[in-house]
Amino acid sequence: MSLNQTLQCPVCAGTIPFNVQQLIAAASFECPTCTSSIRMSPSSVTEVKKSMKNSQ
């Protein structure tokens, strides 16, 4: 799995590029189209880390 991914912006449907490791480290990412920001909720970080560890 590539650590560089994209998500659809929930505001404008543009493409938000992000890095998985930075996302689970609580970084925020900005939509290049509308400048809305996304980040993972702290409650989800633990579950994502477990999932990534199990997939290796």
Describe this structure as you would to a colleague:
The protein has 56 residues and is of the alpha+beta class. The chain has one domain. Helices cover 32% and strands 25% of the residues. It has helices spanning 20-24, 42-54; strands at residues 4-8, 15-19, 29-30, 37-38. A two-stranded antiparallel sheet has the order 1-2. A hairpin with a 6-residue loop joins strand 1 (4-8) and strand 2.
Write the layout of secondary structure elements.
Blueprint: E1 4-8, E2 15-19, H1 20-24, E3 29-30, E4 37-38, H2 42-54
Antiparallel strand pairs: 1-2, 3-4
How would you sum up the global shape?
elongated
Ranges where pLDDT stays below 50 over 5 or more residues in a row are none
Series of H and E elements? EEHEEH
Strand content: 25-35%
The strand line-up of the biggest sheet is 1-2
Give the averaged pLDDT, no decimals.
Answer: 87
Structural class: alpha+beta
Helix content: 25-40%
The number of domains is 1
Distance between the termini: 10 Å
Kindly provide the radius of gyration, computed on alpha-carbon positions and rounded to a whole number of angstroms.
Answer: 12 Å
Number of strands: 4
- Report the sheet with the most strands, covering strand number, pairing sense and barrel closure: 2 strands, antiparallel
Number of helices: 2
